[in-house]
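Treating backbone geometry as a discrete language has practical consequences that deserve illustration. The sequence in question and its structure tokens are set out directly beneath this paragraph.
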Amino acid sequence: MNLADIRALVESDFQATNQMILDRLQSDVALVDQVGHYIVAAGGKRLRPMLVLLAAKSTGYEGNDHAKLAAVIELIHTSTLLHDDVVDESSMRRGRETANELFGNQASVLVGDFLYSRSFQMMVEVDNMKVLNVLADTTNQVAAGEVLQLMNINDPDVSEEGYYQVIERKTAILFAAATQLGALLTGASDQIEKGLRTYGLQLGTAFQLVDDALDYAADADEMGKNVGDDLAEGKPTLPLIYALTQSSPENQALIRKAIEQGGLDDLERILAIVKSSNAIEYTYQAAEKAVKKAIDALTPLPDTAFKTALIELAKLSLNRNS
């Protein structure tokens, strides 16, 4: 199965989710409409809302609230993108200018706040306390993860453990919430709920690991952002952390300097060091382990086309260029 095949299983729900996102972006404040529609129209795979839909269907859900919660997850994710790009001073995302580059930092931050608050309005409409608890805890953890990542910037002594703490909170936990919601909507067993949450957490981990590997290996046009962005921002991601442990003292000093100072003055040399140290392969191996854990976590689910789609989606996360 490819991504189009997987999406076809929930196509009508997927379209309902997209329409709901567009409807809920509407505001009597023109700039909110403008910035919100700009970033949503930038596209992306809509992977997180698709996970909500597939997880719900994999547990036999028959109602309509899964589309609303899929929209909530996407609005939360979109809000974090707006804030991330301001913090990272990014100028490019998904192959085009970021909202902060086009509209300014103030507009991006404030519209991100609007999307957060809109998502909470929609959560309340579902009228499920367990759902509210999961989403409230998740948004809090995502915000804490962003602060934790900020603290790690320009720190060459960040450990692998510290790195994994950041990606769990910043990325994986929103995937985990997306899949857990599917179980909560149907009142599935604790075993299935735990399995779906673990699946999402491990898939999100794999997704971020591949992202971080691509930052040192991908083509800029395929990736939709500039190669070396993480290095320019002084982010110690797994490829750099591993390369540090495998390099000569001279190369270690070069990597440490690049993390501490940011910038791309030594990009070509550091790319060569990362590649020669097998750091990219090491990062992909870590992603493969996370995908295996994700697939294993689905064992309690009944065998359906939706479970198969979740399995295939996990495998596809390893084989992408953006």
About this structure: The two ends are 18 Å apart (CA to CA).
